[in-house]
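User: Show me a protein chain along with its predicted structure.
Assistant: Here is one chain, sequence first, then structure tokens.
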Amino acid sequence: MMLHPDVELLLEIQDLLEFVRAGADDDVRWPAGDRNPDALAARIAEREARLTPHTRSEYTRIAARLEHIIVPVVDGVCRGCNTRVPTGATAAAVVASCQSCGRFLYSADA
């Protein structure tokens, strides 16, 4: 299943943020050449700049209050707050948000 470009960027941003949170943990498998926090911050900023204006605005709001900005929908349930999500809410043509917790959603059922 092909994801909306903003959803792909949000997933990449979330992965990079996980590396930042991990800090200097030697057990973490770091992206090539990105153990430097400044390099990670630059990669995050580059991806944030590529988000559409509306998605970037929502991303900024969500990231300020929640650790995970995008979560999967599994069997029709948001894995951020365990609330049922309307069928079709994670269609590839749109960037969907959970009506309960506000996180961005993507389908893990594909």
